[in-house]
Write a structure and sequence with these properties.
heterodimer, A: alpha/beta, 8 helices, globular, B: alpha/beta, Quinone Oxidoreductase, Chain A, domain 1, Rossmann fold, 6-stranded parallel beta sheet, 11 helices
Amino acid sequence: MIYAVIAAGGIGSRMGNVEKPKQYLKIKDKPIIAHTVEKFFVNDAFRKIIILTPAQWVNYTKELLAKYLPQNDKVVVVKGGDTRNETIMNAVRYIEENDGLDDDTVIVTHDAVRPFVTARIIDENIRYALEYGATDTVVAATDTIVESVDKQTISNIPDRKMMYQGQTPQSFKAKKLKELYESLTDDEKDILTDACKIFSMKGCPVHLVRGEVHNIKITYPYDLRVAKALLDEEIK
Amino acid sequence: MLNTVYRLTQPRKIEIAFTEIDLFKPEVVVKPTYLSICHADQRYYQGTRDPKILAQKLPMALIHEGIGEVVYSPVAEFKPGDKVVMIPNTPVEHDDIIAENYLRSSKFRASGFDGFMQEYVQIAPDRLVHLPDGIDPHVAAFTELVSVSVHAISRFDKIAHARRNIIGIWGDGNLSYMTCVFLRKFFPDTKLYVFGIDEKKLQDFTFVDKTFLTTQIPEDLRVDHAFECVGGNASQIAINQIIDFINPEGTISILGVSEYPVPINTRMILEKGLRMFGSSRSGRKDFLKTVEMYEQYPEIVDYLSLMVGNVVTIRHIKQITEAFDSDLKKPMGKTIMKWEK
């Protein structure tokens, strides 16, 4: 069974002078989260699409998606956790309680604020998660990545040819993720904020899926302007 | 839903654009799976169309031959997972006499609006035809082209007189080959003679009765009717040769596209009382007929599979240009894009 897990956390504090978390802002007259969910909605591989939001936004999100998506029983909205990993684990718990977990249960986790994700990226996530156990969607780094430990001077400049920028989806065999996550100490959980990192730290392969430069995350007002600019070119 | 569209913005340059798919429209959403490159796409891609036309039409997603899989359908006729062939002709009105592909108001994919080079195609349910299970997707991809032959033969059957002892087919390319495959099935008792310029290509027409080089046609040879599948600069020679070798009151079916007006021997058309008719594109009923024939005569699909040239998997935009470039180099056959965008 394949599940989509859409993380719609965050209080949207980085979005400038707006009241709502950024996934609820509209592009093309539709909330960003609705655009994102639609990409998973039309993919028949998914048994369910689980959307995780802060507790106070659960009802709002349910009502919103009921309005913007055709009637269905595929989309569910549940409460997220305090951290990204806890949010993902809430989705895993939801699956376990409702359908049960088996070795081939795959979750494709995605940011609600990346509505430009493509069918290819989603399909490759499913394919490689089933084959390798975990995937991370990345694009080759175009800027040189500079590491600074003391925030003042360079401590390292890794070879750019080996550097990638992480996007989402990240996909996992859910049972394996749960086992690895539960084996972490609380300190480790604090450090391992990225679920792919849990896999790779534990020596489990994470297969790369080529992302797209346009698979942007709408985080800052600048991103929203870019998203709107990308959409301006209409069919003649 | 935001949809990624791969548009030709200028010759040889394909760029990403985004459109919005409204799931509340009474239309089906199809994920393209196999797309086939046509000469018309190449003319846009290479920039050999009139610059004025190019300026008018671009940016536009190319490709009007393709199949896909239904991912979302608001109508009961289709469900997710259904394999379908997409009809590029898009009528906006109905006429009891004029076929949909001849209505001047009809729009056509990759000519008047975006073609199938998209992440998803939103399309009216009557622009889709179910494909039989297990059909070779590489062949199914160019069903549109095949349906143009089927359309022309169906019209020929209505127009041409009943003596059909010998039909001549001028041309040794894809269009001629497909037309012969279907003529063989439509008229099993008719002798098919193929006239071409390339002996090697003519050797592929194993199922016809005779093949001739156009420079070596016996003086006394006659055909009852003829199909012109040549087009381009050679149209003139082909059509005039047909006029010379056809019997009186024969029917000539013109299928080859020429960018320029073609001078033809009208005196002899008059003297022989010939009929000449043109066919272009196809409509829903031609697609239905084509798919029905694929099912009824599986050997048709086998013959057509010999036309499959290069198959290029597309996951990256640069692979699209590689597919178009490789298509240009091949002498015959179809280039198929396995579409994984």
